[in-house]
Every structure is written in structure tokens, then in C-alpha cells.
Design goal:
The chain is of the alpha/beta class. The protein contains 18 helices and 27 strands. An eight-stranded antiparallel β-sheet has the order 3-2-4-1-10-9-11-15, with helices on one face. The radius of gyration is 25 Å and the shape is globular. The chain binds 5-amino-5-deoxy-1-O-phosphono-D-mannitol.
């Protein structure tokens, strides 16, 4: 949720930190701050609002700030409202030690009471400030920052990614993680540390990922990693797999629009080298270690949150229809709290764009602890979830910066389609049918490209509907998840209340909402239940609801029923959500722009939700 970056080396850390924070801002954007150690003094600047406010403040103070060591933070508030005081960094009683933190210290009330009794002056309502006072206390015993941080963390319950600096040891940054990502960026005579590779890729491509329970001491020329229990560990250096240009807007007004338009390419990348044509044979190297388990699975349990959960629902539809295997789709956040029944031949799939979602991590742990083999469908290479699974398939959608997930959704479904074909073939789906499905899959990037050509029409529709208060999205079969996803996109970025429903469920309640002010988006491709959805449209029309239909290019019947039609190419219904969600992403985008909303950083949200 929060973004973290630190620098130590010969350069001035200030512009490096500010630039890093701008790249991390999609992780949290309610306040930001930096702490520098210069001339053995701790200098802190922090401000509520966007990173731009902090940049204005730092650049505007006219002192030409310089420091070779610094840490920076962009916040998504958990404890304490987002104001200047609660912004990170926080410091100890003597302003010698500073900390930035991503996560939640769960036992902070107990720790706070003890620290106050010991004479510490606590200034804020944050859980983070408690931790820096605890480190101060431990420093009195250890007289060494690395050890003091370790000892403090032994007393802490909760999740953290932290950076700590001290005027007493101005040549080092201490980093530690449990449940919140951190990596060290290894440069030449300089090192960086960040919550996300986006903040370091400008400076180095060599990184070391910290694991849960690990602590690092980072100087300009070296780094030492230990477990929290003081056991030294040697870490593998890995390479960042994306380029700087992939995390820039590239001429688009917003990241979200860029990412919507990248989908022909991102879907191609998800399929590339994995679908051997013309036979339609699927090769997924990442699944090799668990292939036997997958082939003999009696049930698949998919766990995910938000948009990734919607992709899971689309996966259920195709896995059950084509591979004839029962599939359950669980909200990751609920999974561990209902003592789920896991049988020996169950296989779990966790889906996550970021690979860092706390609820999904917890579901993954729960499934593993109950003996399931767990497969990851993840975008961010090297992320916690990707490394925690038994096997997995990266979706290769490339960095997704817009908080509203778009290209990750379609790539998640593309990868689930591959897993489906792999299993379906093994479980006896006819070769000819596999060939046809594979050909359709390969045609998806071109079909998506075609839908993107509808942008101007969709922009016009957004202008027509921008003042409405509510929207209903209806679809059936594989397009029920499409409806859910369309509604989620709209509410996330335009703040219009929207609901997704299976079309036939409308008459069991939501129909009460229909009047001339209620726009209803129907996803109505010419599939096996097309006629049934037309009946639902009649029901809306009879009540003077406004109908926007996402329908096939060759469907002329629809013009009689819908007020507006967005045309999409035909595709097999299994893969329908990939093509049919594109106009809904565009509609949400243009509605948000028309309403003057901050598309890439919608209020109250953050890109990766690393708290429970
Ligand atoms: O990174 P993840 O896929 O695990 O994230 C799950 C959800 O938090 C995410 O999809 C969220 O719903 C997005 N804001 C959707 O646009």
C-alpha cells in the first residue's frame, strides 16, 4: 500500500528519493515524506497530499537540500488520518532515529502503554511511531542500529516493511520485512532499497528480494542480510525484467488509458510461446513441478480479491465447461476464516496482479497448511505470492501502474484459458476442438484491437451518461464476471454507484431500481443464452430503463431493444470476458475523465493492498 524508497551513495539522495516516490505514488497517495541524514543531523520533510506537494515543499525551501543518505515514503493511511503530523517518516524522542513503514503493527496499543510508562513522548496516533520508540529503547541496550531493529521486531506483532536510519550511524540504512515487500537495488558504490522495483530501475537492474523475517544492513558498498533471529543469510541477486519506458505514460493522458490500449500486446505476451499452433498444444514450463497433481486433481479452488477474483470466476466457467473439473472461487479475504475443507486431491490457484495482496497471501498460506498444492497466476515477477506458491504461470502483462486493473485482468483470463486447455486436453477434450479453441485464443489480440476502435463512440456515451448516480451491469454465463468487472471499474474511478448481476437475477430484486434514470449495461453476445438475455432487456425496456448493449457486430436484432450499442467481434463464450470487458474499461475511463476524477489515483484506493 505505502511506497518506500531509500538511497545511500555518493550522489545527492534528494532527487533520487523524490523521483522514486513519484514512481511509487500509485501504491498510496495521501501523504509523503523524506528523512535525510546530513552533517549528523536528521532532516525531515513531510506533507499531506500528493508527492507533488512534498516536491514543491522541498524545492521551495530554497536551501538546496543535499544528503548522501535518505529514506522516503508515500502513505496510504491505516492508523491516524492523513495529515502532516501522521505522514512518515516518524522519529524517536531525540530526533536521532527515523523510520518509514508499510504495514500494520497490531500490538501497538500494548507497546505504546509500556513506552509511555518508560517516559517516551509519543506525538502521533500512528502505529509506526511506536516502532521507532521501541527501536530507540533497544538501541540503549545494543548500541548498534542493526541489532536494535532486530530486537525491536522480536516484540512486534503484525506486518511491516521498514527502513530505519540514525544520526549515530550515518553510513547505513536498516531494512526489514514481514508481509510487506522490500528489495535492495545494487548499484556501483551506491545502493537503493524500495518496496517496488519501479523506484530503483532507473539506477540498477540488479536486485535482492528480502523475504519475511529478514533484516538487512545496507551501506553504499555492501549489504548484509540476516534473519530476525540473527542468522546470516546469503541472498541471490536477481535481474529486473521490465524497462523504464514500461512504467511511463508514453504519450497517453493516463496510465489507465495506456494500459487499456496495451492489451492487444499484453494478451499476446501472455500467450507467447505457450500455445503451440496449429495443434493447440499448451506448454506451461512453470507448472511442470505440479503437473501430476494438476492432472489428478478432483477439484480446483481459486482464491483472489477484486478484479483478480472476477478473473477467477471467468476461469471457473471455462475450467468446468471444457476440462469438466469442479471449481470453487473464493474471496481470498474470507477463505482462511471459514476453516475451509481441503481434500488431498485439491489444487488451489491464487490469482494476483501485484503478487503482494495480504488477503491472498493469507489464503495461500491457509491452503498450503491444509495440504493443497498451490499454483500462482501472478503478474509481478519475484513478488511474495509468486515466490510462495508451489508452481505458477506469470501473466506477463507488464507493469500495471493505474490503480484500476485492466490489462492484468485480460491477461489473467488468457493464462487461465491456457491452464484450461492444458487440462481439457489431458481429460479428453477432442483434438479438433482444442485446435479451434486455440485458434480463437490466438485471434483475441486482433479482436481487442478492433474494440479499441470503438473508443470515440464510448467517449460520446460517457458524455451522455456522466451525470447519472447509478448504473447496473448485467450478463450471463461467462459474462456475469464481465458485468461484475464493468461495475467495479466504474465505481472505482468515477465514484458512480454500480452493481453487476447475472441478468436473470434482476427480476429477483434489482428490477425495483429500474426507471428512466437507470442506465443498464447488458453484455449480450450471440451465445447459447442470447435469447434469454433479450428477454431481460425487454423487462428493462418495459420500465423505461436506458439500455447500453455490448453486442456482436452481426447482431441487428439488438438495435430494436437497446438505446445504444457497442459492437464487439464474436468469440467463443469461454474467452468472451477478454473481448467484452474492453468497452467497459473504456466506458469507466471516459466517465471518470468526464466527471473530472483522478483516474490513475482514485480516492481511498491503492494499487496493492498489503494490509488485511
Ligand atoms: O494485486 P491483486 O490482483 O491481488 O489485487 C486485488 C485487488 O485489490 C485489485 O484487483 C483491486 O480490486 C483493483 N483496484 C481493481 O481494479
Amino acid at each position: 500500500m505505502c511506497g518506500i524508497v531509500g538511497y545511500i551513495g555518493p550522489k545527492n539522495s534528494v532527487p533520487i528519493l523524490l523521483e522514486g516516490l513519484q514512481r511509487l505514488e500509485y501504491r498510496g497517495y495521501d501523504s509523503a515524506g523524506i528523512a535525510l541524514i546530513a552533517d549528523h543531523k536528521l532532516v525531515v520533510h513531510k506533507k499531506a497530499g500528493k508527492v507533488a506537494e512534498l516536491v514543491r515543499m522541498v524545492n521551495g525551501n530554497g536551501h538546496g537540500l543535499t544528503a548522501h543518505l535518505g529514506i522516503g515514503h508515500t502513505r496510504w493511511a491505516t492508523h491516524g488520518e492523513p495529515n502532516d503530523l501522521n505522514a512518515h517518516p516518524h522519529w524517536d524522542c531525540h530526533k536521532e532515529i527515523a523510520i518509514i513503514h508499510n504495514g500494520i503493527i497490531e500490538n501497538y496499543v500494548t507497546l505504546r502503554t509500556k513506552l509511555v510508562l518508560d517516559g517516551h513522548i509519543i506525538r502521533t496516533k500512528t502505529d509506526t511511531e511506536i516502532l521507532v520508540h521501541l527501536i530507540e529503547e533497544m538501541y540503549k541496550r545494543a548500541n548498534d542500529l542493526f541489532t536494535a531493529v532486530r530486537l525491536a521486531l522480536l516484540e512486534v506483532e503484525g506486518a511491516y516493511g521498514i527502513l530505519v536510519v540514525s544520526t549515530k550511524e550515518p553510513d547505513r540504512i536498516i531494512a526489514a520485512r514481514k508481509g510487506s515487500p522490500l528489495l535492495i537495488g545494487i548499484g556501483e558504490r551506491e545502493n537503493l532499497v524500495a518496496s517496488d522495483a519501479a523506484a530503483v530501475v532507473d539506477h540498477t537492474r540488479q536486485v535482492v528480494y528480502l523475504e519475511d523475517g529478514e533484516v538487512a544492513c545496507i551501506t553504499a558498498n555492501s549489504y548484509v542480510t540476516k534473519t530476525i533471529h540473527d542468522k546470516e543469510i546469503i541472498k541471490e541477486v536477481e535481474e529486473i525484467t521490465f524497462d523504464l519506458q514500461q512504467i511511463e505514460k508514453g504519450g497517453f493522458e493516463h496510465f489507465m488509458l495506456k494500459e487499456i490500449h496495451e492489451q492487444p500486446e499484453s494478451i499476446r505476451n501472455s500467450l507467447r510461446g505457450r500455445l503451440l499452433m496449429p495443434e493447440g498444444v499448451v506448454k506451461l514450463g512453470g507448472l511442470e513441478p505440479v503437473l501430476d497433481k494438476l492432472y489428478s486433481a478432483e477439484r480446483i479452488i481459486i482464491m483472489a480479491c477484486g478484479t483478480s477474483w472476477h478473473a477467477g470466476l471467468a476461469g471457473k466457467f471455462m475450467l468446468e465447461q471444457l476440462a469438466r473439473i469442479p471449481v470453487e472461487v473464493d474471496y481470498a479475504s474470507e477463505f482462511r476464516y471459514r476453516n475451509p475443507v481441503i481434500k488431498p486431491n485439491d489444487v488451489a490457484i491464487v490469482i494476483s496482479q501485484s503478487g503482494e495482496t495480504a488477503d491472498t497471501q493469507a489464503a495461500l498460506r491457509e491452503a498450503k497448511s491444509k495440504g493443497a498444492v498451490v499454483i500462482g497466476v501472478v503478474n509481478v515477477v519475484g513478488s511474495t505470492i509468486a515466490r510462495g506458491t508451489d508452481a505458477g504461470v506469470y501473466i506477463h502483462a507488464g507493469p500495471e501502474i493505474g490503480v484500476a486493473s485492466t490489462k492484468a485482468f485480460t491477461s489473467q483470463i488468457a493464462v487461465l484459458s491456457l491452464i484450461t486447455l492444458l487440462l481439457a486436453r489431458h481429460r479428453g477434450l477432442a483434438e479438433e476442438q482444442c485446435r479451434l479453441l486455440a485458434a480463437d485464443l490466438m485471434s483475441l489480440p486482433d479482436k481487442v484491437e478492433k474494440v479499441l476502435g470503438e473508443s470515440d463512440h464510448i467517449k460520446y456515451l460517457a458524455g451522455e451518461f456522466k451525470h447519472v448516480q447509478n448504473f447496473l451491469y448485467l450478463g450471463r454465463g461467462s459474462n456475469f464476471p464481465t458485468a461484475l468487472e464493468g461495475a467495479l471499474k466504474l465505481k472505482e474511478i468515477s465514484y458512480i454507484h454500480a452493481e453487476g448481476y447475472p441478468a436473470a437475477e434482476m427480476k429477483h430484486g434489482p428490477i425495483a431500481l429500474i426507471d428512466e434514470n437507470m442506465p443498464v449495461v447488458f453484455i449480450v453476445p450471440k451465445d447459447a443464452i442470447y435469447e434469454k438475455v433479450l428477454s431481460n432487456m425487454q423487462e428493462v425496456r418495459a420500465r423505461r430503463g436506458k439500455i447500453i448493449a455490448v453486442a456482436n457486430e452481426d447482431d441487428h436484432e439488438i438495435d430494436q431493444l437497446a438505446d445504444h450499442v457497442i459492437r464487439v467481434p464474436r468469440t467463443y463464450s469461454y474467452f468472451g470476458p477478454i473481448v467484452n470487458s474492453i468497452p467497459l474499461q473504456l466506458l469507466a475511463y471516459y466517465m471518470a475523465v468526464a466527471r473530472g476524477c483522478n483516474v490513475d489515483q482514485p480516492r481511498n484506493l491503492a494499487k496493492s493492498v498489503t494490509v488485511e
